[in-house]
Amino acid sequence: MEKFVIQGNTRLTGEVEISGAKNAAVAILPATLLIDGITTLENVPNISDVKIICDILTSLGANVEWTNYHTLVIDSRNLTCTHASLEMTSKFRASYYLLGSLLGRCKDVEVGLPGGCNLGARPIDQHIKGFEALGAEVNYEQGKINARAKELIGNSIYFDVVSVGATINLILASVLAKGTTILDNVAKEPHIVDVANFLTTCGADIMGAGTDTIKINGVDKLTGNHTYSIVPDQIETGTFMVAALASKGDILIKNCIYEHMDCLSAKILEMGGKIENLGDSIRVYCDGDINSTNIKTLPYPGFPTDLQPQIGVALSIANGTSIINESIWESRFQYTNELNKMGAKITAQGKTAIFEGVKNLKGSPLYATDLRAGAALIIAAIIADGTSELYNIHYIDRGYENIEDKFRKLGARIERIK
Ligand code: UD1
């Protein structure tokens, strides 16, 4: 088992290059199964979740090859199987995108019920409601979910909750359906727009991605021989923006999209940080105290739940009291127990956590409870007095590429110990 050993008291300065978006990659890779041809994907993050998806695609008969560190070539002309192994798919959440893509292409699919980070109950009723509206029959048994249809026919689907997963899954299922599908009350995250852009490049007819309503006119076939570059990772960008603020440092974050960061930028400014928009780079620095503020997580363009633990670290050392209201996942405050071990004063109950800012944090043994909590605890250890050991770092490897190298280049003293 690996751990990070992190010496604290570090002000982060320098440049960091952002990778392709994890949340886009884990949806676009299953989307390649809809294509009767060869796809080249560039700017693919080299992370463990992507490697698992590649193994799953291979097990279904696709030919998947890394042609360099960030480029994948996927040939999905000759799929041999529509049932993905329970062991592989139950490991992580995004395997549910195989439901939409294989149902769309083959009208038959079986996967393990999705696993992933433990953030509380993670229902998929909206996905199922959508597949059924297109004419599929969906069943669960013994940890598996299967869906099949004679044919899929476009329909109007109103989602009861704004769901990233359900929005993407229904885009995947309807691009090859007969007729028109209208998806209402959809999620608008940048990676949803990226999935739609990718499919459009391959011949899909999708309008409205990034708004509340998406209209899809089904086409007969999606074609290959396209090269598509995955959008920069909004959450990795935000993680380094918060790291600059919390460490009172100065970081130039390169290869990112400023407009995707509006909500976080507004909070960083409120908290006393400074931000410069430099085109495809963002400079974030802080040369004074950190102010308290209140935050509520919401679907995009609201404050992302995936940046809540990281901003929580900055609030734990802010002047005064702050409140975070987590409206997406009920178990997303587990990291506050770890921060309290470091001397933070946080009271978390249900969906609300109250942060009474302290002067500084102290190094401690720490346990990552999920992917984003892990990233937050790296930041906490970097700014704390003394040394921290961070365990369960496999969670972090799921979604951040070479995170210790990126932090080390900014001056952090972080070592991966086997
Ligand atoms: C969510 C986040 C996403 C984040 C990911 C991992 C939102 C809108 N989505 O995406 O930004 O990257 O977690 O942290 O911020 N729900 C249902 N029924 C369903 C599907 C979802 O009730 O069929 C509920 C969930 O319980 C949750 C909310 O809707 O409270 C959002 O879920 P969803 O967007 O589907 O989750 P992810 O796609 O995992």
What does the model show?
The chain has 418 residues and is an alpha+beta fold. The chain folds into 2 domains: 3-19 and 232-417, Enolpyruvate transferase domain (UDP-n-acetylglucosamine1-carboxyvinyl-transferase, Chain, Alpha-beta prism); 22-229, Alpha-beta prism (UDP-n-acetylglucosamine1-carboxyvinyl-transferase, Chain), CATH 3.65.10.10. It contains 14 helices and 23 strands. The strands form 6 sheets. The chain has a 4-stranded mixed beta sheet with strand order 21-22-1-23. Strands 2-14-16-15 form a 4-stranded mixed beta sheet. Strands 4-5-3-13 form a 4-stranded mixed beta sheet, covered by helices on one side. A hairpin with a 2-residue loop joins strand 7 and strand 8 (144-148). Helix 1 (22-31) runs parallel beside helix 7 and helix 4 (97-106) runs parallel beside helix 6 (164-174). The longest helix is centred in the middle third of the chain and has 13 residues, at 234-246. It starts with a strand and ends with a strand. The mean pLDDT is 96. It binds uridine-diphosphate-N-acetylglucosamine. Uridine-diphosphate-N-acetylglucosamine is lined by residues 23, 93, 122-127, 161-166, 187, 189, 299, 304-306, 328. Uridine-diphosphate-N-acetylglucosamine (UD1) is lined by residues 23, 93, 122-127, 161-166, 187, 189, 299, 304-306, 328.
